[in-house]
Amino acid sequence: MDHELVCEDLLFPEGPIAMADGSVILTEIKGQRLSRVTPDGKRETVVETGGGPNGAAIGPDGAIWITNNGGSFEWLAIPSPDGTTLTIPGPTPASHTGGMIQRYDLKTGELRTVYEACEGRRLIGPNDIVFDRQGGFWFTDHGCSTPEGRKFGGVYYAKTDGSLISRQRDHLISPNGIGLSPDEKVVYVADTNLGRLWAFDVAEPGVLAAGPGFAPGRVICNLQDYQLLDSLAVEAGGKVCVATIINGGITAFDPTGSTEHFAFPDILCTNIVFGGPDMRDAWVTASSTGRLYKARWPRPGLKLNYNV
After folding, report:
1. Among positive and negative, which fits the CA dihedral 80, 84, 89, 92?
2. Is residue 303 situated within a structural domain?
3. Sign (positive/negative) of CA torsion 230, 234, 235, 238?
């Protein structure tokens, strides 16, 4: 796929939001900040968030909602085959105590924490977020690594007024990207370590139906060989486009299980967002090299509920 480099020297970019003025607001996880990249490629800081801002989305209140993992990674520098240095996430530091859901008001500049726990349990590493038509939001908690293995993650639903947070799936290995089908009857979740795209049927707004048999949900596809999955965006026609690690790029999953891969020049592509007048402009975060790319997608993306 043809692509253009929009911006570089970003500190592990993620969570892109396509804005109406052609700019992209994104998170920089290592940089602990929300940034704006203008169409001419310049970067400016929107707000310092602390922790590890991961996913971001505009809510019905016009604010930016941030899934902050609380700084759940140590950062490693590794050499690449071309002689440059790549930045990759490493173990969870011993100082990590958990993550949070933050709200940033673009008009007033106020940043506040809305949720830190659910049912008495601290959130571990909130990762990705999507809003439904009712104005609530689904988000993933990726969990985190430990010296003995992992703290498992989950899938949550919450309201923006702070009145409700509900754990809808628990004990998932490493849930990462999350998105809604065009009719909002399905929540899609990409599991990083399994290389698997899950589909969870929605029983009612904010509530997932029971999974089939012993499974927590329906399996759309497991990628072959060693490929990992990160965050995602959904096309208007229903395909789910998931940023892919190791086999760097974007894998488009059809709900029937077939896939197609679009390569980008980074082994650690982490997210994609659609925008532009026809929703065929695609921005991809290439995180280990600290870059943001733009490409023309072959099909239109699904317009998110509250983007302006």
Report:
1. positive
2. no
3. positive
d(CA 201, CA 111): 33
Whether residue 124 contacts residue 171, with contact meaning beta carbons closer than 8 Å, is answered with: no
Structural domain includes residue 307:
no
> What gap in Å lies between CA 126 and CA 132, rounded to an integer?
18
pLDDT-derived band at 297 (thresholds 50, 70, 90) equals very high
* Pairing assessment for the beta strands 240-245 and 228-234 based on DSSP bridges: antiparallel
Instruction: Provide the CA 144 distance to its chain's centre, in angstroms.
Output: 15
Residue 273 lies in a domain: yes
- Domain coverage including residue 116: 3-296
Q: Give the CATH number for residue 58.
A: 2.120.10.30
Query: Does the predicted model carry a pTM greater than 0.85?
Result: yes
Question: 294 is written with which tokens?
Answer: 């733009």
Beta bridge partners of 260: 252
CA distance 124 to 219: 25
**Residue 75's pLDDT band (cuts 50, 70, 90):** very high
Instruction: Name residue 121's beta-bridge partners.
Output: 118
How confident is the model over 243-295, as pLDDT tens digits? Answer: 999 999 999 999 999 999 999 999 999 999 999 999 999 999 999 999 999 99
Q: How many domains does the chain have?
A: 1
Give domain status of residue 178, yes or no.
yes
CB under 8 Å to 159, separation ≥6 — which residues?
135, 136, 165, 206
For residue range 169-212, what is the model confidence (pLDDT) as tens digits?
999 999 999 999 999 999 999 999 999 999 999 999 999 999 99
- Given a contact cutoff of 8 angstroms between Cβ atoms, the answer to whether 189 and 140 are in contact is yes
Q: Looking at the chain, how many residues does it have?
A: 308
| Per-residue pLDDT tens digits for 100-118 | 999 999 999 999 999 999 9
Amino acid (1-letter code) at residue 18: A
